[in-house]
User: Fold these one by one.
Assistant:
Number 1:
Amino acid sequence: MEFAFASYDEFLEEYKIYRLDECRKCKGRCELVENDITCIIENRSLHFNTLLVLRCKKCGAIYLPEYSKQMINYAYKTAVKKNQIIGVFHSKEYKKKFDYCKDTDFDYDYKDYYNIPGLRYDDEHSVEGFLTPVYFEKGALVYFLAVPEYEVQIFSDSYGYFAHKDSSGMYQYDWNVPFGFNTNGKLVMWLGDISYMDDKTRAILKGFNVSSDHLLIDSEFYQAQMKCIFSEPITEYKILLNKKTFIANINEKYSIDISHLTDECQQQEKKVKRPVVYSETEVTEVINAYDKILIEGFDVSKMKELYEVMYSSNERDKSYTSWKSIKLIEAILNKLAISIHNMDIASVMSPLYVLHDYRNLLDHLLSIDKISEKKEHIINTLGVQNFDDQKTIYNEEIKRLNILFNYLAILSR
Ligand SMILES: [Zn+2]
């Protein structure tokens, strides 16, 4: 790729323009990528074997980001000083380190901080480098998901938070930082946020640290963090988002579409909202909508197909062909969670059985004995004293559904 400027002044004109993450030509999103760049200024030809540029993902247009222009400017001045017409510049091994996490030597690229639009124009933090992206293998999240003192919550396809619970019980968290996934499946967190973590967590994270691939802009994480276009949805809605993410992940990984009755699910989603007075009718309506979406909203035959892909013929349960949604989800989760040794599958799966009990309660032909039996089962499962305490039942059920679908969304990645 070649950039030609008739004069140094013309280059300075370009230097003044701050290139944004949005393509000026087609409004597509640009990502930072390494490119072989020749920059001609007047009669001097400056060649960079790897220079970071902003490339539009839609139309391919290439723009020079701020720090790369600074490098070109420096190279031009050097060429003038040395009276060179042709200059060749190789990327140096120099790795600038910011004043964050000095004790843990995280691998990151300081050039990302200076080149990715917006990151260095951060008014909130006085020490330079806070919003430097640090990249990790996604396995880090799976690791922390399995340790009870941490909380990992994903609330969209690729954006969530990672927190350490406060052991003193004074606060909810010792620290709580956002994370995202880039389009390459890498986990990303800000260097400054990582500095809030305790030494032990940082040491564990270090083991998952990988070099920057510079991809960040086309992620919900960056878009939300830079533009505040996204706020954390209420738990009720998070569950629905995570169900969709789970289905999308499975489809991408196994080419099996396990969604079912999509239109019906959309209708039911309108009924999902946080109850106001927590009457039995109000709670039952929301719970029943969840039953339609989270149990009937899965295609049983497609899930059996997935089960057969995940389990070899000698691993399969003898009676799996007669299984319905819940058993199949349980088996799928079991397989996905293979690296998590201490997961209490029965407890994680329990909210789906509660949905099932609620569904039976709505069956008007049920005898009085059966009704009290179902109610008893619901309160025992959720650890609630009394069926009349609908608010506690509801909150516990939502909390557990959130845990389950959070697992499914993260582990299926
Ligand atoms: Zn474009």
Note: Residues 23, 25-26, 28, 56, 58-59, 61 surround zinc ion (CB under 6 Å).
Number 2:
Amino acid sequence: MNQKILTQEQISSFYHDEFVADQVRDFGELVDHHPEDGVVVDIGGGCGFFARALSASGGWRTRVIDMDPASIESCTSIGVEGRIGNALAPAVEGDERVVCFNLILHHLVGSSESATRSLQIDALRKWHGRVPTLFVNEYIYQSFLGRLSPRLIFEITSSRMLSLFASMVARIVPSFKANTFGVGVRFRSHEDWCEIFEEAGYKVTKVAIGSPEPIAHPLRLLLIRTIRRDSYRLEPK
Ligand SMILES: C[S@@+](CC[C@H](N)C(=O)[O-])C[C@H]1O[C@@H](n2cnc3c(N)ncnc32)[C@H](O)[C@@H]1O
């Protein structure tokens, strides 16, 4: 099963540290402090901003694995250990203690909903039995109708035709703009993510619920009730 990959231009929109403070705070709350035990691996860790902040705040040794060479160059330039690698086939070096998935799972998108679900589960399963703890920070989209809103966003962003139409609408209504048009993005509700974790073989042992983010009025048409970023500590069942 193949991941649909964002273009370099799309990926470069993530070269910022906007969410790092929240992620480091949640990591501190959720993960027990044992920096001497091993390395924190940040899968899809981008430019290394989370890894750098975590080392500075808790003394953790960190390593970023990302498929984007420019991000790994940035890691090196700020003194963070980085490896070009794939979340779906990560190199395991044997010194890992905690593995983080910060805002990457929703980018593991395949050609259909079921392929996407399998990719997201697969990335988590790669570390099953290899580390005692996973830390996941993800977008939560709660809907007014079941789990509809994040599914609608997936269907629109992963379809070329619908993405073309949506990007034309976004010229008039900028809040419809998405940097994943034509490739797809798969946000989920809290319940849906928990089912994915369970299916991957993990139990959720701690959760940090994020603050609700502002929702632009036009986006309410997608029946979005809440958008927030939650963090989870996962342990193998
Ligand atoms: C939205 S950015 C998140 C960056 C950072 N973790 C954060 O929370 O701000 C997603 C990152 O995942 C990386 N990525 C996407 N698919 C990947 C894969 N299969 N293997 C490794 N990295 C991947 C992208 O290159 C990008 O750096």
Note: The chain has a mean pLDDT of 96.
Number 3:
Amino acid sequence: MLLSPFTPLKLANGQVIKNRLVKAAMEENLGDANLAPSSALINLYRQWVRGGVGVMITGNVMVDKLAMTGPAGIALEADSTLDAFREWSSVVDKSECKLIMQINHPGRQVFKRQGGKVFAPSAVALDMGKHSKMFAQPQAMTDADIEDVITRFAATSLQAQKAGFNGIQIHSAHGYLLSQFLSPKTNQRQDHWGGSIENRARLLLAIVQKIRASVTDDFIVAVKLNSADFQRGGFSLEDAEKVIAMLNDQQVDFVEISGGNYEAPAMQGRAADEYTLAREAYFLTFAQKLQRIAKMPLMVTGGISNYSTASKVLASKIDLIGMASALAVQPDLPLWWQSRTEFKPKLPKVTVKDKTLRALATMATIRRHLSRHGHNKITRPIHPMVSLVLDQMKLARLNKRYRRNFVD
Ligand SMILES: Cc1cc2nc3c(=O)[nH]c(=O)nc-3n(C[C@H](O)[C@H](O)[C@H](O)COP(=O)(O)O)c2cc1C
């Protein structure tokens, strides 16, 4: 049968997803001073529900408010007040759309100016060339730190379920803590958390198991995984195949395939690898290889913004189509595609030479769209470097607020 992006999908746990179009995670930087969802953030999600997506995966929510990926992110801990989170989940109440909270720990990927607790499997700092000093030096984690992280992921998942979310997605991609454990480049431990891929994946598996023991069976538990880090000596496609095989034995409802990290931002389609240079659906070839092993549905994200590419993903036997930038620019894209499959959102073009600045300018440009949708404002195009400067000014203000409230 030829599937359409509007064909429903039934997950192994019985949950039905109304169509294959998934809003992939985008950190919105719209948290309030207490790191809880603001009204603008909640309003943004209302627009995606109205726009017709089948699933929304939230921007990453931190399991520890002292370890944030950004100063206006969201944190959900065991004792956090749930009121604002309940309001957030209520956006899907009268719809068939599913809301999945992405949960994350940054590990070493923390900006120095933001501060907080910065730890990693080993004390290996980010190498960003001349931009390296923007990042904090991490400390190697103790066994107690690792146990604390496992407990936190499970506690955040249980809180998400109590707050009315349909599931969680464990962020194990893009160079954050769990991805640092998976990569031999960042995980140089000699104990049972490092070395073989079985050891490097031990933390991810322990987290999946502890979450599963904490939530009900119909609660969706998903994982976001790199197909590869695209770095010499990093997490490879062969490693990813083994991790998928290990996840096959767990109750994981779907796995999203991405790639890259801050040092090699392949998730923006610009790794040195030949496969990722294809402009559209640049992880599709990898996802197809992983699909031969996976028993659970796979989702692929990266470079999908037109209907024919979305259809190609399904024709390649990948079950879910992840889109971030396209839905940031055009939250009602699924509605457009229901009546006009040739409709294409106008994605911003960021052509800055410096790799780090280009990644930051891309994020700033897309985040500007998110913020303006959240505040019901029209987004007029501005130069990506202007977006970057405005974003940096906003971040400087928010870093001060975060440091004052949580770090100093
Ligand atoms: C502003 C912005 C924020 C992002 N935040 C997250 C995040 O919180 N978690 C995550 O897994 N990926 C995050 N991503 C990566 C996207 O989920 C996605 O993998 C990437 O943008 C490629 O997909 P696209 O081509 O559809 O944009 C972010 C991307 C952007 C542009």
Note: DSSP finds 13 helices and 14 strands in the chain.
Number 4:
Amino acid sequence: MTETQVDHVFTPIRLPCGKEAHNRLLKASMYEHAANFQGGPPNAAHMGMYKNWGQGQWGLILTGNVQVDRSHLTIGRDMVIPDLLNESTLRPFRDLAEAIHGGPDGAVDPPNRALAVMQVSHSGRQSANWVSGRFPWNPPLAPSSVRVGARESGFFPQLFYRLLFSTPKEMSTSEIDHVVDRFVLGAKVAHQAGFEGVELHAGHGYLLSQFISEKSNRRTDEYGEKLHLLRRIATETRRNTPKDFILGVKLNSADFVDRKASSSSDEKVLQHVRDIVSWELFDFLEITGGDYENPEFMTSVSKRQAFFSQFSRKVHECLPGGPNTPLIALTGGFRTYATINTALSSGHAELIGVGRLSIHDPHAPLRLKSEGRDYVPPPAPDYTISIWDQLFDFLGWFTGVKVPVLMGAGREMCWYTVQLEKVAGFAPIDYGVSGFGAILRSIGGVKIRSTSCHTILSWSSCALFAVILSWVGLIGVWDAMGRFTSSGYLGWDQPL
Ligand SMILES: Cc1cc2nc3c(=O)[nH]c(=O)nc-3n(C[C@H](O)[C@H](O)[C@H](O)COP(=O)(O)O)c2cc1C
């Protein structure tokens, strides 16, 4: 490997606030599914994971989303910002920052230490009914009363989304003020615990993204102006943290770009980005895509990469340049030295976010540095190794009903959260875990491997699955005969 080949990936870069990342590799935010059920502080499992990543020589390490509101969790085991700021509530967050910095034993030299950035988030209407930290009959808060999946047509997708998500309550001004205070408290916790910065999660369909997106924000007050809440939170965060505190934001390209790419939608996109950049509040903008209705951040690597990098290139073209211009971080599908280096050298981004590869290989930067273009990423998993996964896929085919993409993304997400236990234990990941086994393990807490499919547990799961399959098949036939929909019995197919 020659010097020029490593130039872009391993050149240090200064952020507008003055902090410097020693290379361009950012360990992307990934929900750990490791806190107490119903949310809590970071614990030993988090320490293990972040200590492992901390030794991998990443330029920046982002935590998984830390919820600012205990009653709006994602999948139930989120880290949560405490209500009170004192020594005992700060202690676990201090330990987490220390783990990212290489641990108390000084295992990582200061020049190779990652900048520690906490991602703060509120899931808004995407806080699922059963694991949200609320009673299921309490609706989640959102900019407008528009349910996740409201635009889906068809009985099964509707049933699926209805079971998972309630129609949200439109937030009052005082509820919005409270959310602003909680984000600011999140930044204070991060700062006092020793993190170098925070990233506001305004992607993947969570609350801040809901305010930005036309499909979920139908307000007519000042918050109907799509960027108003984001600006308020960013301004208040800056006001309450030191000048050299990193402030980033994760944005959803899908909120901005119309795939049909009419020039008017492009112009809207660029105007939004220009506005955000002109505030001079952010150190970096991380570009991603998708939400729970369209989870592209987890699927279709090649299409997604092309889409995001096209967006990122457009963003770059409208940046003014200069010391206060935020850096662009591009996340999604990066696995090889060549793609990372190309994205950097073609000017699509200044930082590259790496998610799933960092689970396969927590020390990827070390290996990319020593192996360069010869780096061979670990193989991607095959989720369909168990009989349940094949049945799962068969379900979609048999009923002739489009199983929502979210289920596929959910299976992949569960698989990776199960593997995070391996990252915490500094152990190699386990390719023997099936997608369906990962769902049981991750949601039900049941440990199951494809090789154990002859156990009683496996067969009872199979039987249960067969019952569900027959039930779903029966309803599918009924649905196809038009009994429900034509009579309007369920009334879920009506447009908003
Ligand atoms: C298990 C898992 C959990 C994730 N949790 C988060 C999260 O908490 N916040 C976030 O912004 N993105 C989250 N993501 C998305 C990743 O940050 C990243 O955008 C996505 O995985 C695409 O990057 P990749 O192709 O490098 O994996 C998660 C992804 C995975 C696989």
Note: Confidence is low (pLDDT under 50) at residues 1-6, 257-262, 446-458, 482-496.
